[in-house]
């Protein structure tokens, strides 16, 4: 017993170093692929298409944190994606309209609908600083308020999913009804510049791709830091044993609110970059259907892993773009069938295949699903049943493995 106790710190230290090394290598490989290989091999059009996929992947990272680690089935992330997108679109339309002293500073679509002046609540978004701050604060703040109101009343599971989906439907209806200020069904489009850069210039289009790639890497880094921290353990514990966590003196509502607000922030940043890259934002991009589409990519990739949501989102977006060209009406059925197959046979997503393969290399997998002990005692993860926290494909541990009240203590 004493031998195990004395070896444990060194083993955990070695585990941490190896995990950190894998993460650094993973980020380096991703950076090379995104910043060197992709621009050198893809045309401007394909690069812009990949940039669009990266924006959608940012939403997936947040869903992976909130749903995969926190157990919050968020069917309304299109709301926060849309908030970030429309806030950015408002600024771009005002910038294209010019100063108030010149042509009046009224966006073209407003004049088309017979409006001769800009609404007062649009005016602050002439400032780039106000716009950037609003994109970062408004969606996250709204998510925090909604989350606090919902989670303090212990609304969870299917009830929370239905509530978030209803929010997405209401948001899309609101946008459609405000045609004179949001463009209605057509949305906002026809942007000519992005913070002074001409959007028609291929060089600037590549710059936008680099911006989206960098933002995605930052979001993944934030998610990983949260997942491997003490907060990440507490979030998983709330997902699996909320009443137990409450009994230990923690407030599960506050834990959930943080994850929900961070997921909203990530979705808003993705939406803000989506607008100049794609060139349009409309209610069709933020309603119930796209919100479910975000979720499908995360489920297919592996919701409880770090990279699963990213790869799943990019794969689903690419498949949708490719198959829709050949089968315009068949993609939705293919997407639904793939989702059902994955949920039925691979609940952990495609990342589960990688996990099974790695476990098979380490040794026999017991009936409980934990990897076999590496030395006849502690499993390869460091503690009984504990996956490597730095492994991008490792699923979240359970609350039984990580008791927030005792984690990190020694006997």
Care to give the gist of this entry?
The chain has helices spanning 2-41, 44-69, 77-97, 108-112, 128-151, 158-177, 179-182, 202-228, 230-240, 242-247, 252-278, 288-301, 308-326, 331-345, 351-362, and strands at 188-189, 193-194, 197-198, 280-281. It is mainly α.
Q: Could you list the spans in which at least 5 consecutive residues all have pLDDT below 50?
A: 1-7, 364-390, 399-411
Question: What's the β-strand tally?
Answer: 4
- Mean pLDDT value: 83
Largest sheet: 2 strands, antiparallel
Order of SSEs: HHHHHHHEEEHHHHEHHHH
* Shape label: globular
Distance between the termini: 11 Å
Estimated helix fraction: 55-70%
SSE-based structural type: mainly alpha
Strand order of the largest sheet: 1-4
With helices defined by DSSP (H or I, 4 residues minimum), what is the helix count? 15
Protein architecture, described:
One of its GO terms (cellular component) is plasma membrane. Keywords: Cell membrane, Membrane, Transmembrane, Transmembrane helix. The chain starts with a helix and ends in a 49-residue tail after the last helix. With 411 residues, the chain is mostly helical. It has helices at residues 2-41, 44-69, 77-97, 108-112, 128-151, 158-177, 179-182, 202-228, 230-240, 242-247, 252-278, 288-301, 308-326, 331-345, 351-362, and strands spanning 188-189, 193-194, 197-198, 280-281.
């Amino acid at each position: 017993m004493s031998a195990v106790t004395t070896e444990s710190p060194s083993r955990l230290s070695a585990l941490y170093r190896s995990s950190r090394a894998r993460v650094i290598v993973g980020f380096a490989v991703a950076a090379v692929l995104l910043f060197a290989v992709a621009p050198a091999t893809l045309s401007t059009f394909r690069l812009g298409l990949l940039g669009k996929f990266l924006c959608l992947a940012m939403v997936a990272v947040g869903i992976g944190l909130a749903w995969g680690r926190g157990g919050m089935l968020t069917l309304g992330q299109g709301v926060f994606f849309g908030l970030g997108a429309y806030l950015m679109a408002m600024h771009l339309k005002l910038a294209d309209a010019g100063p108030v002293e010149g042509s009046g500073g009224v966006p073209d679509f407003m004049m088309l609908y017979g409006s001769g002046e800009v609404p007062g609540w649009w005016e602050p978004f002439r400032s780039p600083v106000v716009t950037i701050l609003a994109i970062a604060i408004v969606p996250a703040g709204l998510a925090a308020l909604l989350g606090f109101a919902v989670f303090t009343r212990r609304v969870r599971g299917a009830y929370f999913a239905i509530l978030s989906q209803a929010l997405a439907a209401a948001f899309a209806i609101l946008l459609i009804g405000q045609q004179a200020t949001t463009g209605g069904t057509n949305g906002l489009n026809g942007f000519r510049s992005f913070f002074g850069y001409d959007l028609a210039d291929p060089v600037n289009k590549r710059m936008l791709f680099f911006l989206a790639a960098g933002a995605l890497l930052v979001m993944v880094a934030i998610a990983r830091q949260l997942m491997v921290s003490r907060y990440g353990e507490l979030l998983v514990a709330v997902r699996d044993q909320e009443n137990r966590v409450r009994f230990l003196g923690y407030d599960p509502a506050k834990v959930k609110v943080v994850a929900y607000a961070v997921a909203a922030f990530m979705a808003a940043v993705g939406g803000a970059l989506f607008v100049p890259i794609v060139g349009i934002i409309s209610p069709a991009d933020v309603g119930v259907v796209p919100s479910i589409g975000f979720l499908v990519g995360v489920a297919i990739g592996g919701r409880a892993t770090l990279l699963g949501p990213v790869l799943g989102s990019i794969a689903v977006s690419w498949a949708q773009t490719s198959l829709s060209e050949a089968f315009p009406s068949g993609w939705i059925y293919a997407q639904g069938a793939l989702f059902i197959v994955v949920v039925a046979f691979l609940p952990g997503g495609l990342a589960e295949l990688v996990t099974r393969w790695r476990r098979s290399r380490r040794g026999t997998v017991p009936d409980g699903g934990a990897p076999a002990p590496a030395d006849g005692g502690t499993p390869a993860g460091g503690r009984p049943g504990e996956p490597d926290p730095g492994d991008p494909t490792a699923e979240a541990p359970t609350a039984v493995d990580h008791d927030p009240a005792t984690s990190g203590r020694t006997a």
